[in-house]
Amino acid sequence: MARALIVVDVQNDFCEGGSLPVAGGARVAADIGELLHRWSSQEAGAPAYDVVVATKDHHIDPGDHWSLKPDFAQSWPVHCKVGTEGAGFHPNLDPQPFDEVFYKGEHQAAYSGFEGRTSSGEPLADWLRARAVSQVDVCGIATDHCVRATALDSAQEGFETRVLTALCAGVAENTTAAALTEMTSAGVELG
């Protein structure tokens, strides 16, 4: 029964100064970076994860997911375009400890990390099962969008799922509250 941490979309474009910033994104990046440092250096009291992975929005041409007049529900400003600085991990986050990175949304909208694949094409759920993972912690950006979708899919895939709410940033108070309610209703633990 291995435990995994999934760090969702902690990318420059989703933090302050990016094209689609979420308030508190840089702070969350720093806090996750601190957790990763403690985990990778095996400090006393550090979380006991067997594997740590990240997801990245990885857009090439995602169709109407990008818009010059976004509605901020189904369409968004250009963000996380492959090859741009905005698609990179935020500098407060140290990507070195990741066992794998899962890329999502090259040619379509993709909110859940479970839509992501490794650079060799392996889906997240298969990768986790191959490592005997049964428990998953989720953190990152944004609580009410990609964290929500990733946690819901994790529970749907049969993983015991917990969202680390202190290590997440949400877009809006009302949509974040609704997402938290939806996740708990689906059996996701909030921690």
Rg on CA atoms, Å: 15 Å
Query: From the 3D coordinates, which CATH architecture would you assign?
Result: 3-Layer(aba) Sandwich
Largest sheet, strands/sense/barrel = 6 strands, parallel
Helix/strand class: alpha/beta
pLDDT < 50 stretches? none
Strand content: 15-25%
The count of β-strands is 6
Envelope shape? globular
Question: Which strand order spans the largest sheet, edge to edge or round the barrel?
Answer: 3-2-1-4-5-6
Please trace the helix and strand order, writing H or E for each element: EHEEHEHEHE
Give me the number of helical elements. Answer: 4
The helix content is 25-40%
- Ends: how far apart? 19 Å
Into how many domains do the coordinates divide? 1
By CATH, the superfamily comes out as Isochorismatase-like
CATH topology: Rossmann fold
EC number: 3.5.1.19
Keywords: Hydrolase, Metal-binding, Pyridine nucleotide biosynthesis
Family: Belongs to the isochorismatase family.
Pfam families: Isochorismatase
Features:
191 residues; alpha/beta; Rossmann fold; six-stranded parallel beta sheet; 6 strands; globular
Describe this structure in words.
Its EC number is 3.5.1.19. This is nicotinamidase. Belongs to the isochorismatase family. Pathway: Cofactor biosynthesis; nicotinate biosynthesis; nicotinate from nicotinamide: step 1/1. With 191 residues, this protein is an alpha/beta fold. It has a single domain, classed as Isochorismatase-like (Rossmann fold). The chain starts with a strand and ends with a strand. The protein has 4 helices and 6 strands; from the N terminus they run E-H-E-E-H-E-H-E-H-E. Helix 3 packs parallel to helix 4. 26% of the residues lie in helices and 21% in strands. Strand 1, helix 1 and strand 2 form a beta-alpha-beta unit. The mean pLDDT is 92. The chain has a 6-stranded parallel β-sheet.
